[in-house]
Specification:
Order of helices and strands: EEEEHHHEHHHEEEEEEEEEEE
Strand content: 15-25%
Shape: globular
Signal peptide: 1-20
Largest sheet: 4 strands, antiparallel
Region (Disordered): 32-71
Number of strands: 16
Organism: Neosartorya fischeri (strain ATCC 1020 / DSM 3700 / CBS 544.65 / FGSC A1164 / JCM 1740 / NRRL 181 / WB 181) (Aspergillus fischerianus)
Keywords: Signal
Distance between the termini: 41 Å
InterPro entries: Rds1
Length: 473
């Protein structure tokens, strides 16, 4: 049996069954059915933006911002939030037996939202609102970006990169998914939800387009994991989790299209909202007038001078500044000499063409690798309409913080000049045999090696001097 094709035909479905002995057509009883639309009973709510038509205008913002800086309340309670013990963490179960009466059969005591209260799928605090609004911006850029790559690169461009028409259809479907995600999150905010913006992308080839998507979907996924469990509204968190499960699959797919191992990690890191906004905002060119403003901080950019180029047979031979722009999420330059490229190299272990999975005999990076760094001064205009400004409250940087999975690992920074220095890639593990640093990771300069864990990473924000990405593995 080679294929099964469904064709709607009046009151039956004709199913051509193609076998080695020929084709046999059978009919299956059916009626022609359409989903309800508009005001019809049971009709689905409309999308906030078209899932299939058009992309926004693109390019750098050239106007004058009418508002500058992140959204602020007139007063702030403190410069930092002190770390303190948790007085409610008292539950301990020595034998696995139930410790309290059960609310109903087969339901253990405890949990949130399990007492019969009717769920309300709306944000419940400023924290909820600003977190979900950030998520809306992520969904909108993905909706536009996926469509845009298909528009500016032809089918032949994709074929030259080892990608087929079917791969294009997959990217197109992922764009349609984003219209649903943007609608879901917008509906939980209400009428003041952010609207679709315009964007300024860095890529010039199909490989660079895919590389950029690998990075963008990583900070999009990690950015959402970072705030989900902190939401006041657990109802909102439940729905966002169900969208984020799809975002995680998109991240793995783009790695496969780039010829990278799709999931070289055991755990997906969560990052604070200001990390997410720092990486995302610099690719948003302009937004509609009176678009809701965000509260999150924009850190100065941290650049990895010798960022590994996944297009190379040996990524550790990457030259300095082998990227296509000057923003932290910009993709690696794919237009390297053919003899140094792994794209059409059919030798196992040295091939980076699209695949379900790839073994790379020479990893992109390795523990102990010297990593050259430079960083910006604060005060740079970024984000929608150049209306946000990078800032930091940190002192002079002394450490490099690395985040890929559960662990935040520090290495010492050696400063060699004005806003430049180096460190060495750490060799720590999450659990035995699982390198803590792998895949598309996050890297920051800090003025202290503050102890933080996955649930309270935000406490590090006042100590961050600059923030960037690191392509490991």
């Amino acid at each position: 049996m080679k294929s099964l094709i469904w064709i709607l035909a009046g009151s039956a479905v004709a199913v051509p069954l193609v076998s080695d002995s020929g084709t046999k057509v059978i009919s299956i009883p059916a009626i022609e059915t359409q989903p309800p639309r508009g005001n019809e009973p049971g009709a689905a709510p409309p999308l906030v933006n078209s899932a299939t038509t058009g992309v926004t205008t693109h390019g750098a913002y050239s106007g004058t911002p009418t508002t500058t800086g992140a959204e602020q309340y007139p007063s702030t309670l403190a410069a930092t939030i002190p770390i303190q013990p948790n007085p409610t963490a008292t539950y301990y179960n020595p034998n696995g037996k139930l410790t309290e009466p059960m609310p109903m059969p087969y339901m253990p005591a405890g949990g949130v939202g399990t007492n019969g209260t009717v769920p309300v799928y709306m944000v419940q605090s400023d924290f909820d609102y600003q977190s979900v609004a950030l998520g809306v911006h992520q969904e909108y850029i993905e909706l536009d970006l996926f469509h845009y790559g298909l528009e500016v690169f032809s089918e032949q461009d994709f074929l030259d990169a080892g990608l087929t028409v079917e791969d294009r259809r997959l990217i197109e479907y992922m764009a349609i998914q984003e219209a649903g995600h943007a609608t879901l999150l917008s509906n939980m905010l209400g009428e003041s939800a952010p609207r679709q913006c315009t964007y300024h992308y860095p890529f010039k080839t199909v490989r660079e387009f895919i590389d950029f998507n690998v990075k963008l979907t990583r900070w999009g996924e990690s950015g959402t994991w970072g705030w989900l469990s902190h939401l006041n509204s657990k109802e909102v968190a439940t729905l966002v989790v169900e969208a984020e499960a799809i975002e995680a699959r998109q991240q793995a797919i783009f790695r496969q299209l780039l010829g990278l191992q799709p999931m070289p990690i055991w755990f997906a890191a969560g990052i604070p909202q200001s990390w997410h906004w720092t990486l995302l905002a610099q690719y948003i060119s302009s937004c509609p007038a009176n678009n809701t403003r965000l509260v999150w901080q924009n850190f100065p950019n941290l650049y990895v001078v010798n960022q590994a180029n996944p297009n190379r047979i040996n990524a550790n031979a990457t030259e300095a500044w082998e990227v296509v722009g000057n923003r932290t999420g910009d993709p690696s330059n794919s237009t390297i000499p053919a003899g140094q490229s792994c794209v059409h190299n059919n030798v196992t272990g040295y091939n980076c063409g699209p695949a379900i999975s790839r073994d790379k005999y020479d990893p992109l990076t390795f523990p102990g690798r010297k990593v050259e760094l430079t960083w910006d001064e604060p005060g740079r205009a970024v984000g929608p309409n150049n209306s946000y400004v990078t800032s930091t409250t940190a002192g002079q940087p002394s450490f490099v913080a690395w985040l890929s999975q559960l662990n935040l690992t520090y290495t010492e920074l050696t400063v060699t000049g004005q806003n430049k220095g180096y460190t060495y890639q750490p060799a720590s593990e999450v659990f035995e045999t699982d390198p803590a640093l792998n895949g598309t990771a996050f890297i920051a300069l800090t003025d202290t090696n503050l102890f933080v864990t996955p649930y309270n990473l935000t406490m590090l924000n006042p100590h961050i001097r600059a923030l960037g990405l690191y392509q490991a593995g």
